[in-house]
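User: tokens in, sequence out, please.
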């Protein structure tokens, strides 16, 4: 990795007009340490492969499963994700209980999250969910065989373990939706994630509570109605624990709810570097920011029949030309029902003729009722004429008449 970085830096240095410092001045490869690590990795790999071969010859299923698991952990730690995934999936053939399958799925989920392989996350979430249900059912079916206090303690422990696994599955689902651009589903999934303690070792290893707060909030602001933001985020005490880990997130939500959209946009710009540096969020920052900006303009204009563009310019911190372009784009996309007076710089809401709309709905309802009555009359005439297609003998068909008149 260091050598690849060194080569990339040298290539940029040779093609860039700017004067960059020498790579050797920034850092030098500790060859002694690197050789020691490579030798240790080689020894560990040889040991694990010998163990797997021995267990395979002896046909000990549990030992073979554990050997594949250990090799998967080893290759994952050394960065060979493809080989790691191969050993994890191979261990499935030697799983003898639902708990073994669940452990295998959780290991693969961690690997897929590190790889940012969002498309396959959902598959293993479903498998893990099924294994979790099967493992829980097996534990319940085994029945209590110990004194009552011991049984109660064991039941609580199993309940906690189930909550921990479920929280991790919810998080994996949320990351899958985020990675594939389904922001509304991602927001709903992030809001379902359990308390930070339920995520166990995933906190700090795969994600931080602050990350969950940012992902969930940005996805919600980009897709939720304002009432949903209030009820599902501000009034959500569980998600509030995550928000407290990143103070500017609460300020962002409160500014949005108070229609202080200029501050909302300033916060998004101020922390854009942090967002773009995030491995899961960076590909979606631009689209999420645009969605939040669009919703902000729509919400600001809703109470008005007409409004001057210079007033909107002051509210959003944009120039009048930027406001006009933004509004025109929203009108063209159908998010704002209105028109722009470019000469006087005024945005006017489209006047709706509610009387005409009411008549149109009434005529449509009458037409649908007429068509329904016509079908019923034709059905009655068929029954009166005894034109009935009876089901064959032994058939479980519940009806006596086949309705041919599905059209108008």
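Assistant: Sequence out:
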């Amino acid at each position: 990795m260091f050598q690849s970085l060194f080569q990339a830096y040298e290539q940029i240095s040779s093609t860039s007009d700017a004067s960059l410092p020498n790579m050797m001045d920034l850092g030098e490869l500790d060859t002694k340490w690197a050789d020691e690590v490579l030798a240790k990795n080689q020894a560990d790999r040889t040991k694990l492969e010998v163990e797997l071969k021995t267990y395979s010859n002896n046909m000990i299923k549990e030992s073979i499963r554990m050997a594949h698991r250990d090799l998967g952990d080893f290759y994952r730690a050394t960065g060979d994700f493809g080989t790691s995934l191969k050993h994890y999936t191979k261990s499935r053939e030697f799983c003898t209980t639902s708990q073994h399958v669940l452990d295998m799925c959780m290991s693969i989920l961690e690997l897929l999250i590190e790889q940012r392989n969002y498309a396959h996350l959902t598959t293993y979430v479903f498998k893990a969910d099924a294994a979790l249900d099967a493992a829980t059912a097996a534990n319940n079916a085994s029945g209590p065989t110990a004194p009552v206090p011991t049984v109660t303690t064991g039941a609580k422990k199993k309940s906690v373990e189930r909550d921990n696994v479920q929280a991790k599955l919810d998080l994996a689902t949320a990351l899958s939706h985020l990675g594939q651009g389904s922001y509304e589903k991602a927001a709903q999934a992030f809001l379902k994630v359990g308390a930070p303690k339920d995520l166990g070792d995933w906190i700090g290893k795969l994600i931080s509570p602050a990350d969950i707060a940012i992902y969930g909030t940005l996805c919600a602001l980009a897709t939720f109605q304002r009432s949903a933001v209030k009820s599902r985020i501000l009034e959500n005490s569980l998600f509030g624990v995550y928000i407290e880990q990143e103070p500017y997130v609460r300020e962002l939500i409160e500014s949005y709810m108070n229609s202080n959209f200029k501050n909302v946009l300033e916060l998004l710009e101020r922390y854009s570097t942090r967002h773009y540096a995030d491995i899961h969020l960076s590909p979606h920052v631009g689209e999420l920011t645009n969605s939040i900006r669009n919703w902000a303009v729509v919400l600001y204009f809703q109470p008005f029949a007409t409004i001057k563009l210079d007033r909107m310019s002051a509210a959003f911190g944009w120039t009048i030309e930027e406001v006009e372009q933004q509004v025109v784009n929203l009108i063209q996309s159908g998010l704002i029902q209105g028109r722009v007076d470019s000469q006087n710089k005024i945005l006017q809401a489209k006047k709706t003729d509610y009387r005409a709309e009411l008549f149109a709905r009434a005529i449509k309802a009458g037409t649908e009722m007429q068509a329904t009555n016509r079908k019923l009359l034709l059905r009655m005439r068929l029954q009166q004429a005894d034109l009935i297609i009876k089901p064959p003998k032994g058939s479980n068909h519940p009806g006596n008449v086949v309705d041919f008149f599905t059209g108008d």
